[in-house]
Specification:
It is built from 10 helices and no strands. By secondary structure, the protein is mainly alpha-helical. Helix 1 packs antiparallel against helix 5.
């Protein structure tokens, strides 16, 4: 699995560099999205989901951050770089000595309490549902398709969203083995953000102490 994840990571980097639309140094959608001023709901929803995904991963990884490689730097990096930052963590901890567990969880108690709290999970879940509904109901698919074809930023963030969703399947599968959950539960990861949050909520009382 380590080598497969490494291939995906390198392919993602190569794709983002060489195969995204050439905007000539001036991306028409970057500024409006980063400043949260875009008028297109579908674009704003996708951009917002890329901010919610790292929070969901934080809830999963920081509650049991006891491997030799700490998860928190990669989680923090994912808020800016998404899957570009998270994939290296899963690559390093896929197997071998770096995947071994320490005696204790390194996450400070207050943060761990937040990541394990049902209130945190439900708030994130409701916000995610609202964001998806906003983008789906109010969004214009044709506008998004045009942005995907003409904007390097929109193109990359869309691929990033897909990679984060597929990575959720692996992340849940790996955690499910530790928490003795049925193997099929990993497919929750195919439901973007929501599946990951539901899994974390379901297993919140079963994490190692």
């Amino acid at each position: 699995m380590r080598y497969l994840l490494l291939i995906v990571w390198l392919a993602f980097i190569g794709y983002a560099i060489f195969f995204t639309p050439d905007t000539g140094g001036s991306d028409p959608y970057l500024r409006s999205l980063v400043t949260l001023q875009s008028k297109e709901p579908s674009l704003m929803a996708m951009f917002s989901l890329l901010g919610l995904f790292p929070l969901a991963y934080a809830c999963l990884l920081l509650r049991s951050d006891d491997r030799r490689v700490p998860a928190w730097p990669f989680v923090i990096g994912s808020f800016a770089l998404g899957a570009f930052a998270l994939l290296p963590y899963f690559i390093l901890t896929a197997s071998g000595r770096l995947a071994e567990h320490r005696r204790s969880v390194r996450t400070i108690p207050s943060i761990r309490h937040s990541t394990e709290g049902a209130a945190t999970h439900w708030i994130l879940l409701l916000v995610t549902v609202a964001v998806i509904a906003y983008g789906w109901i109010g969004g214009n698919r044709a506008v998004y398709a045009e942005a995907f074809q003409t904007s390097s930023f929109v193109h990359t963030m869309t691929i990033d969203f897909v990679v984060l969703t597929l990575l959720s399947v692996y992340a849940i599968s790996r955690d499910a083995r530790v928490n003795r959950q049925p193997a099929g539960i990993m497919w929750l990861g195919l439901i973007p953000v929501i599946g990951l949050l539901f899994y974390v909520w379901r297993t919140r009382k079963k994490v190692r102490t």
